[in-house]
Design brief:
- The complex is a heterodimer.
- Helices cover 45% and strands 15% of the residues of chain A.
- Chain A is α/β, with parallel strands linked by helices.
- Chain B is mostly helical.
- Among the domains of chain B are: 78 residues; 141 residues, no CATH class.
- Chain B is built from 20 helices and no strands.
- The termini of chain B are far apart.
- The chains are: A alpha/beta, B mainly alpha.
- The interface between A and B is large, with 59 and 61 residues.
């Protein structure tokens, strides 16, 4: 059965896009069919997978606003066995245009529910805000993955996301469940980072992934090479962590 | 202070991730995250390395002298050699052994930036409740006045720092409040509205009015209203085909959404807008039904009147328009033209309310039916007035009947105006009569 996973955190710079790219690559390595949806107008996911967000058309903007477009029409072949629904800067306008539309919060869900080629996993990358586009993602998803940088300020960003999740579960998507909390940008020797993971485990208990993503330059360099870390530095600690995460996600109930 | 610094600064801060209502998921404890078969586990990720202290001990069990269970002497997963480190970082010895050059301000400079240190470190006595209110916000008016007030001379703002940075006492207080926060989740509160929730904003204490609104207008009400707006928008698209009316309704819907987004206090305003749209949509549905039944019948009725009137004018035209014709013909002519006026007076509002304004109401059916009759009667009255010389245009003599017919037509067309005119004339007569009576009465009362 297809699983739609949204990667969200209101805090920026916590590794949402890296998580989507590398988790997708990890899941592909495990033999799954994977599609990713970029709901961030900055198009970081689109860039990371080798497309230019200034020229790519159609995009998730069209997916959310054009009634006559299907999910398959937007998907691009990245050459990595990952299908990409790219984003471009037009997505900022979608935020405003959606406001005057009916079913503005359920557009993505409605599109994904139409008959189409199934995937094993659809991963949704979101912008670091809780606007209508992100809400569309939360309404469409089955599971929520929260990457949290192992520091205090990043942890605080989780609260406003969860506030919104309350409402999303009550009003739009009661099926949305927490897949897990992923500690990212972990300095392996930093006491602060370890304490942060400890605090995450205190609150989210079983839902904190065993995998944590260490802080490493390769995670920043790989997108510049239009590659996932698993391709760019397969032996790095980050690649190992994401592969382990992919296994955890793959086996999650 | 030293004791505080030695503690784990993140201890208990995990609670800050929990919303006021608690975690939105109820399976945190029950469902393990994953069950990777042991043979598929990656050896590089040893449990000891990636499992923090949570699985080993609870915060209470941590020995006082070992607040950092990770500092357990385990080797890190990777270690740079001295050569690698130097290749990456260069010679860092100088950086870390460099002595800091103290940067000192003269006393005058310091005072210009910070104000008097004595004031800062010897805060004034604790504020009374009244003073406290003005410092901390609610009621809102006081806080706003404070916020927009001119900066005081005693607190020079160089545009370089906030007032908090200027006032160590305030900073001390802020941290004291922070530390005094309970570590357990705050008891569940009513859910914030749709708009408020996205920001996760903490609200100040509610006023009685806000509390009442919170009680009377639930989140469900807000959501239901939002859905009504959605439905109304769909109905407008589907049922209203006239551009300017659709635009008006969409403006109402937009206004309603703005009201809803502004908060629960504006719920009623939003409801009024939505009611207007729903009423308009209902009207439109009703009009579609009437367009197949009542309205065509009214058009046929008025068209029949027109045909009959024109036929009669053709038949009796010679007698009606002749100045030498009999009075009976003039009366008939007046009635026919009055009826024609009434017919036009009915036809134009019918077109207006059915096709333009699209607010035709069936309760006015009899008005449309009666209008030609009333016009005929008005024509007859006009003729009689003219004959009686009440209107001094012809002085009772008919030189040309055309004037009578024009007046009859106008009277039929705007019979309401003419009816009011007649009423006024009658009132004038009535008033004059009353004055005469009063004049008669007054002498009697004055004479006693």
């Amino acid at each position: 059965m297809e699983r739609i996973i949204i990667v969200a955190n209101q805090k920026g710079g916590v590794g949402k896009t890296s998580t989507v790219v590398n988790l997708a690559a990890g899941l592909v390595q495990l033999g799954h069919r994977v599609a990713v949806i970029d709901l961030d107008s900055q198009g970081a996911l689109t860039i990371s997978l080798g497309f230019d967000p200034y020229t790519v058309r159609p995009s998730t903007y069209n997916l959310l606003l054009d009634e006559n477009i299907a999910f398959a029409d937007v998907l691009k072949d990245t050459g990595k066995n990952i299908a990409l629904a790219p984003a471009n800067a037009e997505l900022i306008a979608a935020e405003y245009k959606l406001y005057s539309q009916s079913e503005r919060t359920e557009r993505l869900r409605n599109i994904l529910q139409l008959p189409r080629e199934p995937f094993d996993f659809i991963l949704i990358d979101t912008a670091p805000n809780l606007g209508l586009v992100t809400v569309n993602g939360l309404a469409a998803a089955h599971e929520l993955l929260i990457p949290v940088a192992a520091n205090y300020l990043s942890m605080r960003g989780v609260r406003s996301l969860l506030d919104s999740v309350w409402l999303i579960r009550e009003k739009l998507n009661p099926q949305l469940k927490l897949l897990g909390v992923l500690p990212t940008l972990v300095h392996p020797k930093a006491a602060h980072a370890k304490s942060a993971i400890y605090e995450m485990k205190t609150v989210f208990k079983q839902k904190v992934f065993h995998a944590f993503i260490p802080y490493d330059d390769v995670a920043a360099t790989a997108p510049a090479m239009r590659k996932s870390v698993l391709e760019y530095a397969p032996n790095s600690a980050v690649a190992t962590a994401y592969l382990y995460l992919a296994k955890e996600v793959s086996y999650a109930k | 202070m030293l004791n505080k610094l030695s503690q784990d600064p993140l201890e208990g801060k995990g609670e800050e991730m929990i919303p006021q209502r608690g975690l939105p998921f109820d399976d945190i404890d029950e469902t393990p995250l994953e069950e990777i078969p042991p043979e598929e586990r990656i050896p590089d990720f040893s449990e000891a390395e990636i499992t923090p202290r949570a699985t080993e001990s609870t915060p209470e069990e941590i020995p006082a002298d070992d607040n950092h269970p990770f500092d357990d002497g385990d080797e890190p997963s990777f270690q740079l050699s001295a050569e690698e480190s130097e290749a990456l970082m260069g010679d860092t010895e100088g950086i870390f052994t460099m002595e800091a050059t103290p940067w000192e301000l003269t006393e005058t400079e310091a005072e210009a930036f910070m104000g008097s240190a004595d004031e800062a470190f010897n805060p004034e006595p604790e504020a009374t409740p009244e003073e406290d209110r003005s410092l901390h916000g609610p009621p809102g008016e006081i806080a706003l006045v404070e916020h927009f007030a001119e900066p005081k001379e005693t607190e020079p703002d160089m545009g370089m720092s906030t007032h908090l940075e200027d006032d160590p006492a305030e900073i001390e207080k802020l941290f004291a409040d922070e530390l005094a926060q309970p570590s357990s989740p705050i008891p569940a509160q009513p859910a914030p509205g749709i708009v408020h929730a996205a920001g996760g904003v903490q609200h100040e204490a509610q006023s009685a009015e806000d509390a009442m609104i919170e009680l009377l207008v639930t989140d469900e009400d807000m959501l239901a209203m939002w859905r009504r707006a959605d439905q109304a928008q769909k109905d407008v698209k589907r049922l209203i085909s006239t551009l300017y009316i659709a635009r008006q309704q969409l403006n109402h819907i937009q206004a309603a959404r703005n009201e809803l987004m502004a908060g629960k206090a504006y719920y009623e305003d939003a409801e009024r807008h939505i009611n207007e749209v729903e009423f308009r949509v209902q009207l439109s549905i009703q009009l579609d039904k009437l367009a197949k039944t009542t309205i065509p019948r009214l058009y046929v009725y008025l068209a029949s009147w027109f045909i009959i009137t024109v036929a009669l004018l053709f038949i009796f035209g010679e007698n009606i328009f002749s100045a030498e014709g009999s009075s009976l013909y003039f009366l008939a002519g007046s009635m026919l033209w009055g009826g024609m006026g009434g017919l036009v007076g009915a036809l134009m509002p019918l077109i207006k309310h059915f096709s333009v304004e699209q607010d035709f109401a069936p309760r006015h059916n009899w008005w449309y039916i009666a209008s030609p009759f009333v016009g005929s009667v008005m024509g007859a009255i006009i003729y009689l007035f003219m004959m009686l010389g009440s209107l001094s245009i012809t002085s009772g003599e008919v030189s040309s009947p055309v004037i009578i017919y024009i007046l009859s037509g106008l009277a039929g067309y705007q019979h309401k105006i003419f009816t009011n005119l007649v009423k006024r004339m009658l009132k004038v007569l009535e008033f004059d009569g009353q004055e005469e009576v009063e004049e008669e009465v007054e002498p009697k009362t004055s004479s006693g």
